[in-house]
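Could someone model zinc ion with this protein?
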Amino acid sequence: MRKFYSSERYKRLPVALQNAFVTLKGAAYSFIRKGFDSHALNAMLLSAESLDQEQIRAMQYRKVVSLLDHAFRNVPYYRSKFAEIGFNPGDFKSLDDLSLLPLITKEIVRDNAGDFIAENYRRKNLVSGATSGTTGVSLTLKMDSRLIHLEHAFARRQFRWAGLPEHGSRCALLRGDMIVPAEQNTPPFWRYDAWGREMWFSAYHVSELSAPYYISELERFDPHIIFAYPSAAYSLSQFAAEAGRKPEIRSLRGIVTSSETFLDFERRKVAEVFGSKIFDWYGSFERVIFIGTCEDGRYHLFPDYGFTEFLPSDVDEDGVEYHEMVGTGFLNRVMPLIRYRTGDTVTLPNGNTACGCGRHFRQVSSIIGRSDDAIVTPDGRRLSTLAHVFKSTPGIRRAQIVQDTIDTLTVRIVRGPGYNEAGEANLIAHILERTGSGMRIEVIQEPVIAPGKNGKIKMVVSNLPKRE
Ligand SMILES: [Zn+2]
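Reply:
Sure, complex below.
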């Protein structure tokens, strides 16, 4: 669909017809994503939210047993792996027994893709999804329409937590779809899906000049929810603040974000400018882990989406422990991923603290690094926890770290008010603390850092040769 938006045919349509097209596409996708039993799925998800910890463990145990049994019977890769290590799903007595099974990685799945597909699914009924593969290893997964419906239901849970009304909702989107041709430099920088009552704002056109138009249109449209890429929401907030604009969106209940690491200072800025709560969610293409944000502003793992384990990965100079998430996904029975290493790191709260929202879903303190955001140090460490180096340097409007060789980093900075040399020296010192002194760091000033082809602004761009 992205292709169609960038086609000459679409670009040449008048705005009204582009709106009509966005509406038609919205209607079609709404049916594809929801399926026919969305109410039943929603009810199922809702009922899980009132379970206590013991009931949640019991539910997860049942789901893991069912998945192991299915994998053993129908999935060649697991059948032979289980035989190799002498594991029988009948021996599985508690969730802790998962540690008996080997971890799998993206490389393993890619190299054995055919063997991961369950034999009891007809291949012609399956759909494929692939990672963009801009960095690291790309991966193609097989799935069925059931997975799409479930995935949609879980995303709806996050929107419900954020306060999206069940009926008559209005949603503004600020994400990666190229709905407004790149060549266009006058408003409207948005298109309207009248079917879904969704206003699609272009993440590519946010600039100092266009920001006031975005704000005015947001005020007029008056959405309940803004669903945005963190980088786009942050840019818009920056420009609005610098222009002295404070958006007044009366119905706004929350800003839902996902798909990129959202830095603390960026998040605070967006919350302040829009006077709104932020509901950041973590999901991944592999669909093994979903982390949502509740009304109390805390991250919760969705226990009915998958079972998550945490591998200690790193401790920083402040003693903060980082954990890599390993996921066993419940949704994809076509291509089950059991103990899948996501490469993404989080920090965890000490002990099991209660949350004001009343749900007993396990909490995560912060989502630190995505494997896509990693650099490699001269001594061979992979650091995906660099996001925090910017927090004590004032006046950074936008930053990006580019690694071209194993011992050089270029930090691209778009300066804002308050930026100074002391702050820059501080920034370099912070990076060196993490990388070791063997890294050469150059800071360069940029007028702007533009989003990539997918509309996102990557925190880290790695131009190192791909790993094997
Ligand atoms: Zn909560």
